[in-house]
C-alpha cells in the first residue's frame, strides 16, 4: 500500500503537522484501534484493532500485522506494508507494475488513471473544497467584495476541466446525497452581477488568494478563480502558502519565515459522517477560527429544516464560498477482493479484503 | 454466501447495553411485516405515516404563504420515489392544502409553490419553496424512508415471500422460532458468534429472556458460520456447541468442542459463493431449491427458486435483499427457509423467513 502523506507518529494524542498527515493518520489509526466515538477520537490501546504495528520507520514505512486476537475476527490478509511520501505519479505507476495493491489517487487524476486501465474506486463526494475569506482582513471585510468574487467563480469549469468530471459543483456546505437540500443553493456563475458590483469596490483594492503549495489541485483552482475574477474586472492574485509542518529548504537559516498575508484561502473540509448534522457541526468548528463564523451548535434533535437554515446563514454571510465536492479515490490491484467503498467518515475497510493470488496469474 | 464482519468504527456494537441496539421489529407469523413482491405503487397508495407528514407540510406552507390563498403548484422528484408514489403524494398534499382553504390553480395565482421530493442520507426530505412576488420562503418536512413498501415487477404463478423476523446491529449466524412451553407463547432464538439469546414474545414485543455466553477459547474466525437445529435442541458453531431444551432456555448450556469438520460451517474467506436450501415440493415443482445470488459481501443479493439446479432455470421471481445473504437453511418441515442477510444501507443483520405460495 502506498500513500502520499508522511506520518511521524501513530499516537492519536500527537497532533499531525498537516491536513494530509492528519487524514492518513486517521486511516491507519482506524486499523490499529478497536473503535472510536462519534467525535472521531480513538479509544482503547494501539493494537486492539484489526492490525498491530510490527515495523515502524517514522515518515517512511510501516508494516501492520494481522491481529490474531481481534475482537471481530482476524483480518483475511496477514500484513499490510505501507510506503509513505510517495508522489501520486509514483503510486499509480507502482500499481500498474504490480508493486503494490492499494494506493491513494488524487480525485483530479482518477479519470486519467482509469483510462490507463487502473482499477479505480471512488467514494461518494464527501470532501468540500471551499474558498474562505480570512477574518480581519480589510480587503474582504466588505460584503460587496465577497459577493463579487463569489459570483464570478465558474464551478462547472473547475469540475469539467480541472477535476476531469470527478467531482460535483458545490453551492452549500453539505452534498445533496447527505442533506437532500443542496439543490436549494445556487451553482450559477453570475459574471454580469459581479461586474455590476465592481464599481462599488475601490479601484486600488487588490486581493490575494492563498493555496497550499503542496496541493496541485488547490493551485489549479486558485489560478482558475484568478482568471474568473479578472474577467469580472476584479484584481485577484493567487499565491502559494507553505504547507503546515514543512521545513524551509535551508534548515540552518535562522531568519523567521516571512509571513504571507492573504485575503482568502482555499481549504479542504472532509465530512466525518454521512449524517448532515454531524458534518455541518464539524465544518462550523473548523471554519470558526479561520473565518470568524460563530454559529450556535446544532442539537441532536435538529430537523432537516434546522440544518438547512444553519447552512444557509453561513452561506449568506459570504465568508465561505463552497466550490466543489471531491470523492475519495483509491486504486486497487486485480488481486484485491471484497473491497467495499467506504461511506463518508468511514475508514478503509482493509480488514475485510483478501488477496486473490490466482488473479495475478490470469 | 458468507458472513460479513465489516468494521464500523462509528457504531461500536459491544460497548453499549445490548438491548440498546436491538430494534425489535417484528413479527411472528400473525404480526409479521411482510416484504412481498407487489405491483408498482399506484397513485394514492402511500403509507399512512406519511399522511401526517404531508399535513404538517401543508400547515407550514399555509403559514409561510400568508396572505396568499391561491397557488400554482409544481412537484418535482429528486428522490428514489417512483411515479405512482409521487402522484399519491401530490394528491394528498393538494387535498391537505384544500382542507386549509388554499386553492391550487393554474396561473394567475397569489403565489407559486415548487415542491421538491428529495432525500437525505437517512430520510426523504420534502421541500416547498413559496414565491410571492419578490419574496420567497422555504419550508420542509422529513419522512421515514422505511415506511414505503417495496414494489417490484409482475409476479409469476409461484411466488416467494419474505417475512422479516428480526434485525439487530450485532452479527447473526442463525435463528429459530418455536412454540414456548406455555400455550400460545413463542420463543425467538438468535445465535451470534459469542452468544445465544432467547427472546419471549410478551406484551406485544420481543423481550430478552436469557442470553448465554458461548465462551470461546479464542476470538472466532472472521467468517464464522453457525447453525441452530431446533429439533435436536442444539446450536453448533466451530469449536462450540449449545444444547438443551430450547423451550426452556434455563436448561441450555454451551460447551467447547473439537473444531467442527462440517463443511456447512466452514468459512471460505469472503470468496464468491452461493447458499442453497432444498425445500419441500410445492406448486408442481418436484425438487425445488432456493439459491442465493453469486455476488460477494459488498453487493445486494437475491434468492430465487430453481427446479433442481440453476442450470434448469428459475421457477420463481427473485426476492431482493439490500445486502449479502449470509446464511440460508431449510426449516425442519421443508416448507420455509431461514435467511440471514446484512442490509448494506443500514448495516443491520436481518433474520427473515422465506416461504412459497402458489399463484397470486
The percent range for helix content of chain B is 10-25%
Strand/helix succession of chain B: HEHEHEEEEEEEEEEEEEEEEEEEE
Name of the CATH first level of the largest domain in chain A = Alpha Beta
CATH architecture of the largest domain in chain A: Roll
- Element-level helix/strand string of chain A: HEEEEEHEHEEHHEHHEHEEHHEEEEH
State Rg of chain A: 22 Å
Low-confidence stretches of chain B: 1-44, 149-156, 266-272
Question: How would you classify the helix and strand content of chain A by structural class?
Answer: alpha+beta
Helix content of chain A: 25-40%
Q: What is the third-level CATH name, the topology of the largest domain in chain A?
A: Dipeptide-binding Protein, domain 3
Would you give an account of this structure?
The complex is a heterodimer of chains A (362) and B (360). Chain A is globular and about 70 Å long. In chain A, helix 4 runs antiparallel to helix 7 (191-197). By secondary structure, chain A is of the alpha+beta class. Chain A has 11 helices and 16 strands. The longest helix of chain A is centred in the middle third of the chain and has 16 residues, at 216-231. Chain A is 30% helix and 20% strand. Chain A starts with 18 loop residues before the first helix and ends with a helix. Chain B is 11% helix and 39% strand. In chain B, the strands form 5 sheets. A 5-stranded antiparallel beta sheet of chain B has the order 1-7-22-21-20, with no helix packed on it. In chain B, strands 3-2-4-5-6 form a 5-stranded mixed beta sheet, covered by helices on one side. Chain B has a 4-stranded antiparallel beta sheet with strand order 8-9-10-11, with no helix packed on it. By secondary structure, chain B is mainly beta. In chain B, a hairpin with a 2-residue loop joins strand 5 (123-132) and strand 6. Chain A binds chain B through residues 30, 34-38, 49-50, 68-76, 176-181, 183-184, 273-276, 303-305, 308, 337-340, 345-347, 349, 351-354, and chain B through 4-10, 12, 14-15, 78-79, 116, 118-125, 127, 129, 138-142, 193, 218-224, 269-271, 296-298, 344.
